[in-house]
C-alpha cells in the first residue's frame, strides 16, 4: 500500500515488444509489475504495442489522454536472437522513450534491460531503469520520483552515469500476474496459448544462458494451489483452453512438477498445455502425470546430439538421457520438438553429424535449429568469446553479437542448411529452411492452439506450404 500522505501517481505502463514471429507472446513481465502498482493505489493505464497499427500514434495518444506522472516501459528481448537475420529491438525502444520523455520521467525494465542496463539508458535517454525483478522496488521508486527525491540506494535502480547502483534484491517468493488490463483473448487467438510461469531461478550451468543472471541460481517455486487458481481464472474468465508453461525448465524440481500436475488433475481443469523440459529430469511417473494433466506437447532442450558438445555447452544431461526422454514422451502420446544449437565451442562437421544422426534416430515431430549463439555479458560463453577475440572485454552487447566468428558461422550454416533442407521436420528460422514469416502468418490465420511446430507434425510438409506461398529454397548464407 502507498504510504500515508503520499499522493497517487498516474502511471502509463507500456509493453514495448512488437515481435510476432513465430507468435505474439503475452507480456507476462509487465503483468507481474501491474499488480503491485495497482495495489499501491496508483492510477494505471496499459499500452500494449504488439498489436498497434501505428506505434507513434498509439504512444502519443496514450500520453496525451492520461498525462502520466511516470511512464514504465517493459522490454522483453534485445533482439530476435536469430543469425544471420537478427532484428534488434533497441531502435523501437528508443522511439517509444523519445515519444514519452518530454511528458514524464521514463523508467525502463524487463529482462532485456537487465542484460544491458547502462547501455540502454545511454541509448534511449530514459530517466532510470530497474535491473532484475521489479515487483518489490516499483512502489518506492514511483513514490520517490513523484516526490522528487533521490533514487540512490533503491535495489536494482540504475540511473544514467550511475556507477554505484545497488544490486537488485531477489524476492523470496513469486506471486501471480495481474492480467485484468490485458487483452488475454487476443493473445490466445493469435498466439495459440496463454502463458503461465510456475517458478523462477535456474541452478544449471549452460554456458550461454541468461536465466541464472536474470533470476538467480536458486529455484523459487509457486505453490501448486496458487498456479491452479491462476489456471482456473484463465479458463473461467478468459476462455483459455491452451497454456504454455513458460518456465525455463518445467520439470525441475521434479517434485514441484509432480505436485502441480496432481493438483491440476484434482481440479479437473479442461485445458491442454505444453512446456519446455530438461531431458535429464524426466521419468515415467512424471511424464504420465503430465499427460493426464493435459500436456500434449513438450519442447526438449537437447542442444546437441554430440557428447563432446553437451559437455562444451555445460549441459547437465547425456545423449542417453535425451533418448530416454524422447522415448517416454512418445510412449505417452506427447508431440515432441527438440531444440538444437549449432556453433558452440568445439563444433565441427563430426559433432554436427552426431546431432543429425540422433534426430534421425528419434524422429520427433519437429527439430528447431539455431545456428550461432547470441553472446551475453555475464555468461561463460562471453568469457570464451573474449578469449577467442569474438568480442572485446569492454564491448557493449546491446546490439547482437554471435559466437563463433563469422567465418566459422558461415561454414557451419552452409552444412546445416544442406542437411536441414533434406529433412521435412527440421525448422531453421535464420536460414529460412522449412519456415518463413509468410508461412508463419499463414498458419496463424488458421488460429491453431499450441506451438506452431506441432501443426507441422499434423499436416502436409512445410515445403508444400512454402510452394503455395511462392517461396523456394533456403536463404543464402
Report on this model:
The chain is globular and about 65 Å long. Mean pLDDT is 92; it is low at 1-5 and 459-477. The strands form four sheets. The chain has a seven-stranded parallel β-sheet with strand order 7-10-11-12-13-14-17. It has helices spanning 28-39, 55-66, 90-100, 111-115, 117-124, 138-147, 184-191, 211-215, 224-238, 254-267, 284-292, 307-312, 319-331, 349-362, 380-387, 406-421, 437-444, 452-458, 462-468, and strands at 10-15, 43-48, 70-74, 106-109, 128-130, 157-158, 194-196, 199-200, 220-221, 242-245, 272-277, 295-303, 335-342, 366-371, 373-374, 402-403, 426-427. 39% of the residues lie in helices and 15% in strands. It is an alpha/beta fold. It has two domains: 10-158, Rossmann fold, CATH 3.40.50; 184-468, tm_1862 like domain (pyruvate-formate lyase- activating enzyme, Alpha-Beta Horseshoe), CATH 3.80.30.
Ends apart, CA distance between termini? 55 Å
Strand order of the largest sheet: 7-10-11-12-13-14-17
CATH architecture of the largest domain: Alpha-Beta Horseshoe
Q: Helix- and strand-based class?
A: alpha/beta
Shape: globular
User: Average pLDDT across residues?
Assistant: 92
The CATH class of the largest domain: Alpha Beta
Largest sheet: 7 strands, parallel
State the helicity in percent bands. Answer: 25-40%
CATH topology of the largest domain: pyruvate-formate lyase- activating enzyme
Strand percentage lies at: 15-25%
Radius of gyration: 22 Å
Structural domain tally: 2
Uncertain regions spanning at least 5 consecutive residues: 1-5, 459-477
DSSP E strands, number = 17
In DSSP terms (H or I, runs of 4 or more residues), the helix count works out at 19
Q: Please, what is the CATH homologous superfamily of the largest domain?
A: tm_1862 like domain
Amino acid at each position: 500500500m502507498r504510504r500515508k500522505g503520499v499522493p497517487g501517481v498516474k502511471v502509463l505502463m507500456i509493453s514495448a515488444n512488437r515481435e510476432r514471429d513465430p507468435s505474439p507472446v503475452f507480456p507476462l513481465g509487465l503483468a507481474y509489475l501491474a499488480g503491485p502498482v495497482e495495489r499501491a493505489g496508483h492510477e494505471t493505464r496499459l499500452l500494449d504495442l504488439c498489436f498497434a497499427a501505428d506505434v507513434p500514434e498509439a504512444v502519443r495518444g496514450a500520453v496525451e489522454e492520461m498525462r502520466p506522472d511516470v511512464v514504465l516501459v517493459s522490454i522483453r528481448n534485445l533482439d530476435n536472437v536469430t543469425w544471420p537475420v537478427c532484428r534488434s529491438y533497441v531502435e523501437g525502444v528508443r522511439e517509444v522513450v523519445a515519444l514519452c520523455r518530454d511528458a514524464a520521467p521514463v523508467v525502463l525494465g524487463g529482462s532485456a534491460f537487465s542484460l544491458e542496463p547502462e547501455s540502454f539508458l545511454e541509448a534511449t535517454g530514459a530517466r532510470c531503469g530497474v535491473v532484475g525483478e521489479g515487483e518489490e522496488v516499483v512502489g518506492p521508486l514511483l513514490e520517490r520520483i513523484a516526490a522528487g527525491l533521490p533514487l540512490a540506494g533503491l535495489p536494482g535502480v540504475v540511473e544514467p552515469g550511475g556507477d554505484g547502483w545497488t544490486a537488485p534484491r531477489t524476492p523470496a517468493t513469486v506471486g501471480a500476474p495481474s492480467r485484468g488490463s490485458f487483452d488475454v483473448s487476443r493473445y490466445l487467438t493469435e498466439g495459440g496459448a496463454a502463458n503461465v510461469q510456475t517458478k523462477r531461478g535456474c541452478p544449471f550451468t549452460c554456458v550461454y544462458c541468461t536465466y541464472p543472471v536474470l533470476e538467480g541460481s536458486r529455484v523459487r517455486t509457486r505453490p501448486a494451489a496458487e498456479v491452479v487458481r491462476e489456471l482456473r481464472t484463465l479458463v473461467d474468465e478468459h476462455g483459455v483452453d491452451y497454456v504454455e508453461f513458460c518456465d525455463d525448465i518445467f520439470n525441475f524440481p521434479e517434485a514441484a512438477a509432480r505436485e502441480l500436475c496432481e493438483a491440476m488433475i484434482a481440479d479437473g481443469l479442461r485445458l491442454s498445455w505444453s512446456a519446455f523440459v530438461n531431458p535429464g529430469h524426466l521419468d515415467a511417473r512424471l511424464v504420465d502425470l503430465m499427460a493426464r494433466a493435459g500436456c500434449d506437447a513438450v519442447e526438449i532442450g537437447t542442444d546437441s546430439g554430440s557428447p563432446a558438445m553437451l559437455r562444451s555447452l555445460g549441459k547437465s544431461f547425456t545423449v542417453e538421457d535425451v533418448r530416454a526422454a524422447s522415448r517416454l514422451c512418445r510412449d505417452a502420446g506427447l508431440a515432441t520438438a527438440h531444440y538444437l544449437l549449432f556453433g558452440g565451442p568445439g563444433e565441427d562437421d563430426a559433432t554436427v553429424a552426431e546431432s543429425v544422426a540422433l534426430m534421425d534416430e528419434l524422429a520427433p515431430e519437429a527439430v528447431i535449429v539455431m545456428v550461432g549463439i547470441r553472446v551475453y555479458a555475464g555468461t561463460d560463453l562471453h568469457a570464451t568469446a573474449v578469449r577467442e577475440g569474438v568480442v572485446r572485454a569492454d564491448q557493449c552487447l546491446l546490439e547482437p553479437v554471435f559466437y563463433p566468428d563469422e567465418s566459422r558461422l558461415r561454414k557451419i550454416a552452409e552444412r546445416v542448411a544442406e542437411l536441414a533442407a533434406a529433412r521435412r521436420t527440421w525448422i531453421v528460422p535464420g536460414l529460412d529452411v522449412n519456415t518463413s514469416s509468410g508461412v508463419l502468418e499463414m498458419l496463424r490465420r488458421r488460429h491453431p492452439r499450441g506451438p506452431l511446430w506441432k501443426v507441422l507434425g499434423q499436416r502436409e510438409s512445410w515445403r508444400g506450404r512454402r510452394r503455395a506461398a511462392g517461396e523456394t529454397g533456403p536463404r543464402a548464407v
